[in-house]
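Summary for the funding panel

The consortium committed to producing paired sequence-structure records for every protein in the target list. Below we show the first two records in order, beginning with the earlier of the two.
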Amino acid sequence: MAVYECNEQQFIENIVRLLNTLSDNRLIVNRRVMLCDDHKYGPSILPEQEFAKYAGIMERKGVKRSVYAKIPFIDEFHNRFYDAEEILHSSSSLSTPRLSIPYYRVEYSFSLWGNSYIYTFDVLFEPEVVIEKSRLPTGRMRRRIGIGSSSSPSSSNNNILIHILRFNQPDERMFNINIPTQVVVLDVKRMIRTIGIDNEKI
């Protein structure tokens, strides 16, 4: 069975062509949405207009340059603390721990007469930076941000005001493509594909 990977225009053109040849003028298309956190995307490779969303807590000298934390913050999605001036992402050193941007991989496909046609694209999570009280890191990470430890800390001492980086779910309308109304889109089970690193937990 042949598999044809298409861009969006090619995929839609193939659908229209096939609809014109089918007697009932209907076609079923599968859509699979997969949550990915495999370090494919990071702040180093973002264009300037997208990196601006992170500019309050990190900095870089240009696209595909190393990214550093400007201030201490917590990456809520990965449950990781970053200190000021810590390197967050370097596009030239993919094996080192770094901040990654989660995303959904959306795959549209259909099969007909022994051939499969596939169109895939990625939708990144939307960053949001807030300042909130959060539970203090423990052990070595407490010392890194200059907060003393106590043998029996009170609950008020367990929280500090700190910047939080959140990754919000993208609008599900971003998963749609402009296909003919005769097409029935069948959503298959969502899958999770994660390749992580050893993170310091907070």
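The next record, for a separate protein in the list, is shown here:
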Amino acid sequence: MLPLEDLKRLKITAETRAWLAAEARQSQRTMQQVARDELHRIAVTRIHAAKVLVSLAPREGRDGDGGDSQSERVPVIDLRREAAQ
């Protein structure tokens, strides 16, 4: 198992608590386990999506669509460097 980080206090909505309680009951896990597993699943999915996006981006002109206008350029974060940290 990966080492766990402490979020200290995390406030959630009543709907989120109800879903966590229902999911915990039906899966025979604690609400904390359900929340941790779901957050991990979301993180892994989004990291994968970012990696796919970077691999699909053209090697040249990653900061825009090739247009001449500075206003058309979109800033891009190097997701490979961000994911490695």
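Regarding this second record: Helices lie at 14-27, 31-56, 79-84. Residues 14-55+74-84 form one domain.
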